[in-house]
Give the backbone structure.
Amino acid sequence: MTARADPLTDAYVALGLSREFAAAIASGQDADAIIETWKADWRGDLTGKHPAIKAVLNGNATPEQAKSLIEAADEHPDLVLLVAEGTKTLQWVAAVLKGFRSHHPAVTAIIGGADPGVAANFLDLKVAKSTLDIIRKGGAPIAPIDSIINDIDKNIRRAMSDFKSMNAEQKKKILKASRIRVKGSQQVKIERYGRFLDLISQVCKNSEDPALSISGPHVNEQKCPQICNNCKGTSFYRGYYKWECNGCSSSDFSQPKVQRFSDITKSENFDSITSALSIPASYSRKEKLAELRRMAKKFKLPLMISQRNGKISRTTKYNRGSSKPAPKSDFRKS
Ligand SMILES: [Zn+2]
């Protein structure tokens, strides 16, 4: 945490916090955790320079975890610093401490990449296999943006499995609440809800990392077809059983789709995705965004965009392309 001049930092310093603590809050770290640490008796007179405290200020440990790291830092400051700087996970450091505490050469060797099994063998130490396994995995932390993206996927998968386990009446209620068509079999309902979850999760991911594009079928089917997949005709008639193309009599129509885009701040993109989510086109951008926010909130998803005078802008702190998303999981098929 660098503590260079910044008006917001100065404002927190004026409250009575040290510059390191103030700078951490100003930079957007968890203010509650930081203040809890500031006030904690266990902190004593340790400053933000202490590796365990630094871990909280950098958002790499909770106050509770920092407390446990303070003791360890007396013996192995270099190890605790790895957590503070976000080079290793707390879990990895805890495993090294569990297996090799007080054995300085072993800890140094393991930080340098030595196999913990070899180190244990050499020192005639009995270290549990589960501990060795954790250390061997390397303890590289997941970048925060990636864990946000992973959490979005996790919450969406949970919402889908919750929905599948509901009875028909509950499903209907859920669909209605989000303006999703309720007609059709259970399977059709599940497909619509899947499209809904897919689009809303893409919007949230794109709001975090503008490099993640958005595309896909609309939630609701159109009441009548838009484009013939066979001849690309756009004129149709209602046959006895189904719609048919005026040009070629085909009944192969595609679900209307959101064309791939990544700039949600562009009005036409924002309008196209909200309409795919069946938010009324008559709504103002402000109302549309409020609806999106309501949807995202329901699934505990972050939505990092805001609106002013009808203009959408981003509030994400992440750079474009900073996430490395796992291959897209097709939860609808599971
Ligand atoms: Zn046709």
In short: The first helix runs from residue 7 to 15. Strands lie at 214-217, 236-238, 243-245, 257-261, 305-308, 311-314. The mean pLDDT is 89. Residues 222-255 form one domain.
